[in-house]
């Protein structure tokens, strides 16, 4: 990797504490912007692992605000959506901010470029009968089914992210207090809560966990005893969704997180409490669930009122 990108990657990983996935995406975005500056609209999208021309800091330093705008327009013309363009702008802006911070540039050409307006799609949410059917689908006579029930109960009861669940260690779980010590984005820790159903499911799972012969302290393991990956959690949910919710598509671990938040708010929970439980840095990220609640109220009104 070229020196400018190496510095950028180290900065994102160590100082900004971005995830490895985000660091890779941001580095690729900056490299793609450099390709566009060199080749214009003829710049092609390079496959992962394909050798790129060297990234020249002089070419990036010579770019101006119009170059950034033209690149974002090119991204959308080439098939990218507004969310993709917004992420690329964030990457470019962060890269130039680092150059300014270290004295290599006087101004950030991306600073005043307006981010594309993003539509806020309402999250898919399961009804209470649907989430109950999903959680009760695993076979309780099979140790893997006991594990899967614990996975589903934990995701719905706590609202934690899939990666947070996969990263849980035994020392993070307090079944007496019904809490989890969760390490979220940018390594921020928070307390998540387990209800009585989830506590019982996790306790049942821990009673059979040693049968998988794990050689580590991660809570959730696969049948070989290795740590359960986020992709494995995704497959678990897809498996039971196909069994009991055949009409629902794209059910994922995040669906259970959305469902947790929506059910909490529908039952009268304070928005800031839900924000804290979800680990959202901004209240605006949590407010989307109020729209889900409003839509539900409108539907109930339309179904129930004679003159609706």
Task: Give the helix/strand layout.
Elements: H1 3-15, H2 20-39, H3 57-61, H4 65-77, H5 82-101, H6 128-135, H7 143-158, H8 162-166, E1 173-174, E2 179-183, E3 189-193, H9 196-209, H10 230-244, H11 253-266, H12 271-278, H13 283-304
Antiparallel strand pairs: 1-2, 2-3
Helix pairs in contact: 1-2, 2-5, 4-5, 6-10, 7-9, 7-11, 11-13, 12-13
Number of helices: 13
Q: Per DSSP, what share of the residues sits in E-state strands of 2 or more residues?
A: under 5%
> Largest sheet, if any?
3 strands, antiparallel
Rg on CA atoms, Å = 23 Å
Features:
56% helix, mainly alpha, 308 residues
Write a structural description.
The longest helix is centred in the C-terminal third of the chain and has 22 residues, at 283-304. The chain has helices at 3-15, 20-39, 57-61, 65-77, 82-101, 128-135, 143-158, 162-166, 196-209, 230-244, 253-266, 271-278, 283-304, and strands at residues 173-174, 179-183, 189-193. The radius of gyration is 23 Å and the shape is globular. It is built from 13 helices and 3 strands. It starts with a helix and ends with a helix. Helix 7 packs across helix 11 (253-266). Strands 1-2-3 form a 3-stranded antiparallel β-sheet. The mean pLDDT is 86. Helices cover 56% and strands 4% of the residues. With 308 residues, the chain is mainly alpha-helical. Strand 2 and strand 3 form a beta hairpin.
């Amino acid at each position: 990797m070229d020196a400018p990108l190496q510095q950028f990657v180290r900065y994102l990983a160590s100082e900004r504490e971005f995830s490895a996935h985000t660091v890779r995406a941001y580095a690729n975005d900056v490299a793609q912007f450099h390709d566009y500056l060199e080749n214009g609209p003829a710049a092609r999208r390079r496959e992962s692992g394909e050798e790129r021309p060297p990234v020249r800091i002089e070419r990036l330093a010579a770019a101006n605000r119009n170059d950034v705008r033209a690149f974002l327009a090119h991204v959308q013309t080439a098939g990218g959506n507004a969310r993709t363009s917004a992420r690329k702008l964030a990457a470019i802006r962060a890269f130039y901010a680092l150059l300014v911070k270290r004295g290599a540039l006087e101004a950030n050409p991306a600073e005043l470029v307006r981010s594309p307006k993003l539509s806020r799609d309402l999250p898919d949410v399961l009804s209470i009968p649907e989430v109950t059917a999903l959680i009760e689908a695993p076979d309780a006579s099979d140790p893997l089914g006991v594990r899967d029930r614990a996975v589903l109960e934990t995701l719905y009861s706590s609202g934690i992210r899939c990666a947070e669940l996969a990263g849980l260690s035994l020392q993070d779980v307090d079944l007496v207090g019904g809490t989890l010590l969760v390490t979220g984005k940018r390594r921020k820790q928070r307390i998540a809560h387990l209800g009585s159903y989830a506590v019982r499911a996790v306790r049942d799972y821990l009673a059979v966990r040693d049968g998988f012969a794990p050689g580590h302290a991660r809570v959730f393991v696969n049948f070989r005893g290795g740590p359960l990956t986020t992709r494995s959690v995704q497959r678990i949910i897809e498996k039971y969704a196909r069994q009991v919710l055949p009409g629902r598509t794209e059910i994922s671990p995040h669906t259970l997180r959305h469902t947790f938040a929506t059910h909490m708010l529908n039952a009268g929970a304070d928005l800031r409490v839900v924000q804290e439980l979800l680990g959202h840095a901004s209240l605006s990220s949590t407010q989307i669930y109020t729209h889900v609640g409003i839509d539900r109220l409108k539907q109930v009104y339309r179904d129930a009122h004679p003159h609706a």
